[in-house]
Amino acid sequence: MTLNEFNNYLNAFLKKENFSDDPSLNGIQIQNSSPDSKQIKKVAFAVDACEATALAAANENADVLIVHHGLFWGGCETITGSFYKRIAPFIKNDLALIAYHIPLDANNPYGNNYGLANLIGLTELEPFAFWHEMPVGVKGKFSSPLSLDEVCKKVSEHTKTECQSFPFGKKDIRTVGIVSGGASGDVWQAVEDGLDLYITGVFMHDNFHYAKEMKMNVISGGHYGTEIIGVTLLKEKIEKELGLQTLFIDQPTAL
After folding, report:
1. 65 in helix, strand or coil?
2. How much is the pTM?
3. β-sheet bridge partners, residue 44
4. Closest Cα partner for 129 from 121, 140, 137?
5. Is 45 helix (H, G, I), strand (E, B) or coil?
6. Is the dihedral of CA 4, 10, 14, 15 positive or negative?
7. Which of 131, 173, 184, 237 is 20 to 30 A off residue 38, Cα-Cα?
8. 176: closest CA among 190, 189, 162, 166?
């Protein structure tokens, strides 16, 4: 399978065309020397495209690195300083880079949000939290109520992060909304939907008093921790369906 064929395989279910307002340049961000002929044999996965993950992928002789956070966010940047350090290992080692941002947040069942919802046992899943009219998160229900501490323990088990809870609402948690990463500001959507709990990656000071005043429980599971889910599920899918060698490059930020 060539790089272009591999990217077509990914996009067949991640569907970047459904997220046209995402400025993240989803798909191939750096090609290899022969995207229509060089065969992909080994695939590395990471949350972030950075110098450390690029070097680690190159050292493992990977052909392509797949990430959630790519190199481009809608602006133009000179290839100098830190940005040069991030790009250089790809060019020097003929290593390709593929990134899927919002499509990998939103995908059912391989995205960060549906993935975490399934892992912690939510059912009756449906889209939740819209950004630029694009559905990003997921909401669902527990079959029986849990305490906030019980839910926090479940989240920590899968994000490998000691999550932080904000007990502002009901003692018994039944309905939950999830938006991974830096989606603190979407807590209002959980309030609007009348949910018992909002789970995100990083809960910001700016939203603390709003959540408290609106009696909304919040769990902060870490930006990195809540976004290892999607790339991990992609890794498992590709191993099973394509039989390629894979590896996960863990570069936690504790954030």
Report:
1. strand
2. 0.96
3. 65, 247
4. 137
5. strand
6. positive
7. 237
8. 190
